[in-house]
Amino acid sequence: QTGTDERPGLHIVESLDTFLVAFVFLIMSLGFMKLFVPDFSWFKGIDLPWLKINDFSQLKNLLWSTILLTLVVSFSTSLLKTEGPLEYTRLIIPASVLMFSLALKFLPH
Q1: Residue 95, helix vs strand vs coil
Q2: Backbone angles phi, psi at 104, to 5 degrees
Q3: What is the pLDDT of residues 7-55, one digit of tens each?
Q4: Number of Cβ atoms within 10 Å of the Cβ of 64
Q5: Residue 97: which H helix or E strand, with range?
């Protein structure tokens, strides 16, 4: 057999990757709603400790962390799908993760 039948964990990692992409969009939409429409009645009942967003820098830090996690899972998914020798173009995602994480570390919080 060839393909993903030999690697059953690949389906789980792919679904996690899709979930994390959807989670990025959810965080972005909730963050923009919380910043621009703070008196919306639906937000009064929601008290999530990780969604304490008061300005754009907090939203940016939360989104960057989520995007970094999504990129790491996406890279691991692409490594699991790869058969045969790896190409040097696969280093684009880890290099971008490194640059994003360094930028996140050195920016003021």
Answers
A1: helix
A2: -65, -35
A3: 777 888 888 888 888 988 888 888 888 888 877 777 666 667 777 777 8
A4: 15
A5: helix 92-106
Q: Is the dihedral of CA 14, 81, 104, 35 positive or negative?
A: negative
Amino acid residing at 91: L
Closest C-alpha to 81, from 29, 24, 5, 28: 5
Residue-wise DSSP of 4-49: GGS-THHHHHHHHHHHHHHHHHHHHHHHHHHHH-TT-HHHHT---G
Structure tokens at 51: 């969604």
CA nearest neighbour of 29 among 63, 52, 54:
63
C-beta of residue 13 within 8 angstroms of C-beta of residue 80 = yes
- Kindly report the pTM of this predicted structure: 0.71
